[in-house]
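This section describes the prediction task in plain terms. A model, or a person checking by hand, is given the sequence of a single protein chain and must write out its three-dimensional structure as a string of tokens. No templates, partner chains or ligands are provided. The sample shown here is typical of the held-out split.
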Amino acid sequence: MSAKKSTVKYMCSDCGAESAQWMGRCPVCGAWNTMEEFTITEEKHYPVALKETGGKLQKASRLSEIHLGSENRNVLDMPEVDRTLGGGIVPGSVILFGGEPGIGKSTLILQLCHAVSKKGTKALYCTGEESERQIKMRADRLHMGEDECFILADGNLTHIVETVEKLAPDFVVIDSIQTMYVPENDSPIGSPNQIKSCTSALVKLAKMKNITVLIVGHVTKEGNLAGPRMLEHMVDVVLYLEGDRSYQFRVLRTVKNRFGPTSETGLFIMKEDGLMGIKDPSGFLIREKKNPVAGSAITSCMEGQRAIMVEIQALAVHSVLSMPRRISVGFDYSRMIVLLAVLEKRAHIRLSQSDVYVNVASGFKVQETAADLSAAMAIVSAHWDIPIPAGVIATGEISLTGEILPVTHVLARIKEAQRMHFTVFLLPEGNREEVEAWFSAQKDKGTFHPVYVSQLADAVSWMKQKKGKNQDIR
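The expected answer:
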């Protein structure tokens, strides 16, 4: 019997990159002083219960010979979660779940266990960070009391595998992967080597037992999952819970999904009794105002396959500083700087001596360029101190030349705006043909007044018509 070999490697604690020799700077992520020494012993990375017993050679099959069966999904009766997962949980899948501390990960996970147990199936919550009493306190706050939800406060993966063998659960939660360890692995807990070993064992467990395993991962200060990047490639689904802790709004976003689209998102609000799905996101994000206010513009953003109405607020005041302030919350800061430059160069709106603040209401984060036109109009509205009339929505991407570029899913945006009783639509000229063809085919025309603009100057001219004749336009 051959002796097991031990090798020394150096791994980056930030990204998990490996090197045969020590380096002061990681060659992959560029971080300094993150290369740590690890001793790796071959064939010592799986719990005893998961070691292979057979070594049969698999036969290669023709693509035409492979038959697809019906994909069974466990629907959780949590519409926002089911939507994000593509219709429900697939048995045998491994889900990696990340999010910033305090964002609501543990709360949502317990709600998932609650949804699973309500269907009469078993859920096992394994934690290496909290005690059973802490989990019980959170469960009582969420009004959970199911007998089919089990708690195991242990980070030893061998004990977890043995518990799975005894209980035979359908849903297993690992909170978190950074606190789990395989006793046969000599690397320290939380090291990239230990994380890879634990994840490999959990993936193997999910496939062997045909159970769903949800792995919670810590995130770095940049918002990425901590540990080796390989972690995301090993699992089937990667989910992120995003939001600002000072707001109630939360977004569950799919980064990777082998069983469905990655464009779907779940929208929640944080309440005392847990995260609640939002049935009408537009109604939640748009606050009805009796009178229009200067510096407020409405746009329609795409979150997954659905359109959501969002309010972009702006404030522009004369600056007393040599370097005017530029602050953005919920809107990309670099994008705001570009819009200010285009407004000054192409539309002749002098903002170089003004402090400019841009905010997206209710804690929503705009991540697409289709909101450019609305943000620019909000800034101009604040600069001129004139409100944009009620019932107006603007959407379009602004190029460096001042051109208004067409947007995708324009019809979905229009339909959502019509549902929210908007009647005037500032749209890119490039979307005219698609919009007119759709409108001409409608039996119920309703109230629809499109205004097509090809240049940013056209939108500014439209706003000038709404401004009083006696006011000075600068």
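For orientation: The chain has twelve helices and 21 strands.
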